[in-house]
Amino acid sequence: MLLAAAGAALISASAAQAQTASLVEVEDSVMLMPWNMTADAVEDARVLNPAGVELGEVEEVLGTDANTPTALVVDFNGSTTGFTGDRVIPIDRFMPDGNRLTLSTSAAEVASFPTYDD
Question: I need a labelling partner for 11 at 20 to 30 A (CA). Which of 4, 53, 75, 116 fits?
Fold first, then answer.
């Protein structure tokens, strides 16, 4: 049973890595609609949970090509989340609020998102 769980984890990690491999960095001047913000303006934005606790910051805007943003790379600070490093999270999980973004997803779901190594 333990072997089966380990195998499933490896397959899941491989699928996540393949998914991130197909994404590229978006050009800084590309607008993220409907937010009316450029990719450059979104980078370094603070990421908060719905309670207003800071989770980390946006490192990169990724997409299916250099002009089609679909995900954000969040660098989690670890101290409040238990997560460290960068995770690739779909754009639709965020709500902008000035120069901050609120992440509306559970910790379990964040754990399922692929890591990002640039």
Answer: 75
